[in-house]
Amino acid sequence: MFNFLFAMGPGPISMFITGELVPQTCRSASSVWTKKIRFLPLTSYLPVKNLTSEPIAYAIFFIIPMIVAVLVLSFLLPETKGRNVEEIREEYERKALLQ
Fold first, then answer.
1. Are 98 and 41 contacting, i.e. CB atoms less than 8 angstroms apart?
2. Mean pLDDT of 24-42
3. CA quadruple 60, 62, 68, 74: dihedral, nearest 10
4. pLDDT tens-digit map of 60-71
5. Which residues cross the membrane (predicted)?
């Protein structure tokens, strides 16, 4: 069940962002860094679970970050379907999110 829920949420979100919003020249480096950063919560989940309880640890490491990720994806990131990186970058510059 853990693997199923992780594959639905925290697992692929970092790959979506790096695959869609990062230029081709930097995509491999950004993918490596997001995988390394994504590994940190997975390694600290078990100690936190042992200190608290399984539902609390799951909420801390997966439910709360997933809610934040959905809000960020919905409101801050532009739609990328059918657009190239330059068009997306122009939209960021228009919104003054990327300076």
1. no
2. 78
3. -170
4. 888 888 888 778
5. 56-77
